[in-house]
TrEMBL record:
Name of this chain's protein: Acyl-activating enzyme 18, peroxisomal
Entry superkingdom: Eukaryota
Transmembrane portions of the chain: 247-268
Keywords: Membrane, Transmembrane, Transmembrane helix
Pfam families: ACAS_N (PF16177), AMP-binding (PF00501)
Family matches, as PANTHER family: ACYL-ACTIVATING ENZYME 17, PEROXISOMAL-RELATED (PTHR44378), ACYL-ACTIVATING ENZYME 18, PEROXISOMAL-RELATED (PTHR44378:SF1)
Sequence ranges assigned to domain AMP-dependent synthetase/ligase in this UniProt record: 205-286
Occurrences of domain Acetyl-coenzyme A synthetase N-terminal (ranges): 126-179
Keyword Transmembrane helix: yes
Similarity remark: Belongs to the ATP-dependent AMP-binding enzyme family.
Amino acid sequence: MGRSISAVGVDDLVKAGLAIEEAKEFHRVLKETVSGAKGSDPREVWRELLARKVLKPWYPHGLHQLVYYSVYADWDPSTNGPPIYWFPSLYQSKQTNLGRLLENYGSKILGESYKDPITSFSLFQKFSVQHPEAYWSIVLKELSVSFHEAPKCIFDTTDKSKHGGTWFPGSSMNIAECCLLPRSHPRKEDISLAVVWRDEGSDNSEISHMTLKELREQVMLVANALDAIFSKGDAIAIDMPMTVDSVVIYLAIVLAGFVVVSIADSFAPKEIAIRLRVSKAKAIFTQVIIHFHVT
């Protein structure tokens, strides 16, 4: 990836965007921190740099890149995977979806081997590969995924012509329904918070909220309108910025049984036309953004 962290000098730090005096002080702190890390494992060196908050948010991005890639200069991604950037605390890990799942099921599936979401992650990953039926049954329950037609099994490998097997054979579902309907597990009620947003360009305004019930009502309005005009399976395009309206529209298209054609709102007209033609879209949702300037 480049030169090692021990070879990074003051000149390199200046080239990365620091003033000369600032670079000298940073270099001193950097050497002190690297020497204080536990061993030469780059993960421990990077962990120590994070713990001491050597890299400040206001430092140039180039400096962050220089230090990161220098720490992992001898790291082999093909063997070790991507170089680790962030080390969550035990508390943070338990607040994630995977952490909560492990806290609920870890002892049941791993027995006394289970310690915590971080320590036992590799064991759980191994379990998910060796026991896909058990693992995915848990995941489907935790994600509140419900099927119109239940799968015959989780993973079918009997048809050798299908390389990699078939997941959830024979099943049918509508993922928008799973998002919008209240569930008892995990606890998801009509008053539960569903969307949080702030309009672009309104950084000083209040944050907006939408409950699950409000979201479902908005989605149903659009879905019913589409259902009255188009046929199931028709392609409907969206060429909009990521706003709460685009979220409502996306879910409505899926809920009503149509195919979503997502088009980046940054695309030029020619590129938009190509995607509409290739997808054979029957309609498109878009919007005109008008900026008002008051004098």
